[in-house]
From TrEMBL:
Domain of life: Bacteria
Cyclic nucleotide-binding domain: residues covered: 13-76
PROSITE patterns: CNMP_BINDING_3 (PS50042)
Organism: Gelidibacter salicanalis
GO cellular component, one term: cytosol
Name of the protein: Crp/Fnr family transcriptional regulator
């Protein structure tokens, strides 16, 4: 675990902190599609992502989802940290976008490390900053972009996060992530296919040129 940890976080944390993470952390491997966190659950540990990607979603009163952002290697979830420190129930859902490995840190260590390690404090503040920027980007996308622009942006991000031009998602799943209807997504995907930008197959989208 220490080698994987150093590759992802060695440039951020001093050796003493890395040693403590190894001592108290729990190493986990999770498969694509695994639900790591559910809305309404109490959060007892915080993830440090070693590999893969996690998508973080919000749910409205009707049960519809909206994709907030992705977590990737070397990152953590600031919303999870907020729940941990406040001992509050989770207001997000976290699902593995790809196969992933991570280290779960007990909530009790978060405040201790904030006082003890400057590198941990900087990491926490930087995580909050990055997540706020991503949330603002999501808000701007909803407020200022047309759905066809949002869809193209979403597909490009999927390609980047998965490191593949093959996207394995149903039209309904994309609609959930973008907080719209399947009919709208299907129509826009068909338009992109007619323009030669993508190729549609059953539950698979091949990105040609976006």
């Amino acid at each position: 675990m220490i080698n994987d940890l150093k590759k992802s976080y060695g440039h951020l944390f001093e050796d003493a902190l890395l040693d403590e993470i190894v001592e108290v952390g729990t190493y986990k491997e999770i498969p694509e599609g695994f639900k790591m966190m559910e809305i309404g659950e109490y959060v007892k540990s915080m993830p440090l992502l070693i590999s893969g990607a996690i998508k973080v979603l919000r749910e409205d009163s009707e049960g519809d989802e909206l994709l907030l952002y992705y977590l990737e290697r070397g990152e953590t979830c600031s919303l999870t940290m907020t729940c941990c420190l406040g001992q509050k129930k989770s207001e997000i859902r976290a699902i593995a976008e790809t196969d992933a490995t991570l280290i779960m840190i007990p909530v009790a260590k978060m405040e201790e490390w904030t006082a003890k390690y400057k590198s941990w404090r900087n990491f926490v503040f930087e995580s909050y900053h990055n997540r706020i920027n991503e949330l603002l980007t999501t808000l701007d996308s909803i407020a200022f972009y047309q759905m066809d622009e949002r869809l193209v942006k979403y597909l490009k991000e999927k390609v980047r996060v998965n490191d593949s031009n093959i996207i394995k998602s149903t039209h309904q799943e994309i609609a959930y992530d973008l907080y719209t209807s399947r009919v709208v997504i299907s129509r826009l995907l068909k338009k992109l296919e007619q323009l030669g930008k993508i190729e549609l197959n059953r539950n698979v989208i091949k990105i040609i040129s976006l």
